[in-house]
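Troubleshooting: if your tokenizer reports a length mismatch, compare your output against this known-good record of 467 residues.
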Amino acid sequence: MQSEIKTITYPDGRIQRYQAVRWSGWQQLDFLWPEAMVSLSEDEDWSQAEEAALRKTLESFERIYRKFLIPGCPWIFGHNVLFCLPEDMRERGAMGAKQVSRYGLMADPLTVAAAVLRHGVKVTEEGPTFSDPEAEALYRELEERQCLRVVHGKLPVTSVIPVRGDVGVLSKVEQGAAMKVNASFFIMDPFDCATVYDQVGTAFGLCVRDGDVIQPPLYGREALLVRRDGSVSVELPNLRDLEMEINENRYSIGDNVILYTRPDRKKTPADDRMKVVIIGCQVVTVKESGSVPIPASGFVVSLKEHVRIRPGDQVIYHGMEDVQFGIQVGNSILREGVKTDKFQSPFYNIRKLERTPFPPSLYPMNFAEDRAARIALGADENGAPMLVWAEGAPKVGYVEGRHSCGASLAEMAEICREAGMHHAVNLDGGGSAQVLLSDHRFLQISDRREDGMEAERPVPLGLVVRL
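Known-good structure output:
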């Protein structure tokens, strides 16, 4: 493992620090799911510690909403109800699939809870009101157990935002790993939680390891692909090119199923075809007929024949068996040594309700000017793996010339080329960006608390190098 840190000084006095890391081979790189870490004290049992870890995750996301998301644009937010579901409440709700008329058959207790709250609770500055006794009982229990938080914006609407429990901080998992780094974009804001199926902490975008598709491609973004023959390229993978297998039955888009995704549509047609809602590699909802909303973190397939598919069934994707490693997150940075100079995939600007170049929806960016912490993964001209972390400006107490100013995507492309990259794609940056070498950070996270201390954010997916 080789690492070097350099500092760029710009003519106007701004500085930018970045770290470039190299290691010997792609076979050492793997995906890492940093689930919430549970530490037991002498007077705690496992369930108590697990619930405390859930609350800590919930508090982390509440802080992001309260300190950054809503203050930055309060007029586009309503009253946001963030909640998590303790294990005993999940077990109570996991007695089999539940039919919710407007959404179909659902098995995940967190999804069912989101449906109940979404249609039974309204929140204002004065507090909640209820139109359904089940929703009131659920809300009150979550509130009493400190598993529910409300953060207010300016709009007179209520947004119910379920928070997954299987997220965590990279510094607490796989201690001693040669390198750990955050990876994919994930569902985080109310606009990402477009349906009851979407949950804060759900990672999305293609992930492939040794030919196995761990997550399917989404949103027409570029991906870094490493073939089994060692060749590296930046390509545009398409879900339509993959074959899906559910319960040993194969489905090909355009052949025996119809595909529906965002942002093209918000919901499917209300016809007699069977609808299957898929997020990642799992069926989350089945509806025999009618319309279903399309999740932001997944997609819907429509089948002419009504077959036996149930919520919780696994989805296997075929068609990338020749890929040793693949990841799809943000825009490309470099392709064949040439700097990318614009966004490559379309999306929507939620502030203007118009089509703009690139997701995520809440953060439309200027490719050449908007600066933040950045992470890029790629390869040098010989195909050897590389990673670059451009340190971001601290969100609290920035001092020009003392702290890094953050890099625009255009500046990041130049930094990566100077570091020796030939191919590179942007990973999740901003307040989540960090690189740990043997559990040590050599640069600083841009998200800071009021006292200036770093605030590590929970993430659902990272990358790990094991030597």
